[in-house]
Design brief:
The chain is an alpha/beta fold. The protein has 2 domains: about 170 residues; about 140 residues, Glutaredoxin, CATH 3.40.30. Helices cover about 60% and strands about 5% of the residues. Helix 8 packs across helix 9.
Length: about 425
């Protein structure tokens, strides 16, 4: 009798446990079906007037509120589905696919919240051929949004996108999906850099991107893009490297860079038509007078290569224009790029991609560039620091000169080799 009672109790417990499990499974199934319905219904709202093919213009205007709310409903329901245990792989991928679609839309609306999730889903679906179209679109929009954040980090301080990593990811996309869309992404990246207000900001980014994209431009026979980036890279990568100073003075005599040996030099690219160049002249004249006797020199480079800035006009400008309250004139050597251009010789303006004015470059006593685009407010202190730097011994100076000359030759050889490759393409 006692054994029978135990058997009945165990039987009742099993029936209760199985029933409970059955009810739990039913409830979980109903919950998933409910979430699945939310996803399906709202995907319909989002996609009513949109499809992956029509996302080309996305990001240029805000989405209708109805689409945003529906997309968020899909995202949240999908998150709950993915949290469920024991869902099939097919159901999980189905959910991820729909979530990825709405995340493309939401990443433009609330970038810090939704872009990282889109990154994660794309990486999770990567390699699955059945979702290649979706992955391509998602990756394209990831790169488009990320390029804005990487170039302009102050737009949203909640997100930091590493420019080098972005460029490498963009290059992978271009190799996997060559064509207009990849070209557009790269063009947009450089276009955004070109829109930055200060050349110093642009140069910092060009210095990062040039080693990544120059080989790609050469490889894909984009001669103009490669040459443009190469000249800008020469300028952007100057700090810590020697600068080639060459040309002709206003009397037509070749400039001898040996006269700058052991001096701290400020190179100023300027033009008579440039108002900002005229504005900075009084300060430069004051600095020249203050430090010239201590080993400081300024070299002015008039960048004009056409007749509107011919030598006679520049000479007349210098003879009739005074600067500052004390009405001073320019006391340093001026090189004129028009002479070199007329002789079909390379100009340093073209060599270093100088396409706007004014541009300043500060060079140390050993011939390497200390600073690109020094600020007027800090220029005095930077010149003073460079002049008072520990002087090299004769042997150290000789070694530095040899290293500089070797580096100059290597830079020039590398550029010539790259240009030869372009000519063959």
């Amino acid at each position: 009798m006692k054994r029978f009672s135990i058997f009945v109790i165990v039987l009742i417990f099993c029936v209760f446990f199985i029933s409970t499990m059955s009810f739990a499974e039913t409830d979980e199934r109903k919950r998933l079906e409910h979430l699945q319905k939310i996803v399906n219904d709202n995907i319909g709202i989002v996609d009513k007037n949109m499809s992956l093919d029509s996302l080309q213009e996305l990001g240029k205007k805000r989405l209708p509120k109805e689409n945003v709310e529906a997309a968020k409903a899909v995202f949240e329901a999908a998150e709950k589905i993915l949290e469920a245990k024991n869902i099939s792989e097919e159901f999980r991928i189905w959910t991820l696919k729909r979530q990825a679609f709405v995340l493309i839309l939401l990443a433009y609306e609330e970038t810090p919240r939704f872009l990282p999730r889109l990154f994660k889903i794309v990486d999770e679906l990567d390699g699955k051929k059945e979702y290649e179209i979706l992955l391509k679109e998602a990756e394209r929009h990831i790169l488009l949004i990320s390029s804005v954040l990487a170039v302009n980090p102050n737009i949203d301080r909640k997100m930091v996108i590493d420019l080098k990593s972005l460029a490498e990811r963009m290059l992978l996309f271009a190799r996997e999906y060559p064509g207009p869309q990849a070209d557009f992404l790269i063009e947009q990246l450089f276009f955004r850099i070109a829109q930055l207000p200060q050349l110093s900001q642009r140069d910092k980014r060009i210095a990062i991107l040039a080693p990544i994209f120059i080989p790609y431009f050469i490889e894909t026979n984009r001669k103009t893009a490669a040459q443009f980036l190469m000249t800008n890279a020469r300028r952007a990568l100057l700090p810590g490297h020697p600068m080639l100073i060459m040309g002709f003075d206003l009397e037509g005599k070749p400039f001898n860079p040996e006269q700058l040996k052991d001096k701290v030099v400020l190179v100023q690219f300027w033009g008579t038509w440039c108002p900002h160049c005229k504005e900075e002249m009084p300060n430069l004249i004051d600095l020249y007078e203050k430090y010239h006797s201590k080993g400081f020199e300024i070299i002015g480079v008039n960048t004009a290569v056409k007749g509107d800035e011919r030598i006679e006009k520049v000479k007349q400008f210098l003879a009739t224009t005074t600067f500052g309250s004390k009405r001073k004139t320019i006391p340093w050597v001026i090189l004129h790029e028009g002479i070199a251009a007329a002789q079909n010789k390379n100009t340093i303006t073209k060599y270093y991609g100088i396409d706007e004015l004014p541009v300043l470059m500060l060079i140390s006593r050993n011939g390497t560039v200390l600073k690109l685009h020094p600020m007027p407010s800090t220029l005095d202190a930077e010149i003073n620091l460079a002049l008072n730097a520990v002087e090299l011994t004769e042997e150290e100076q000789s070694m530095a000169d040899s290293a500089r000359q070797k580096q100059e030759a290597e830079i020039d050889l590398e550029i010539q080799e790259q240009l030869k490759l372009l000519e063959k393409k």
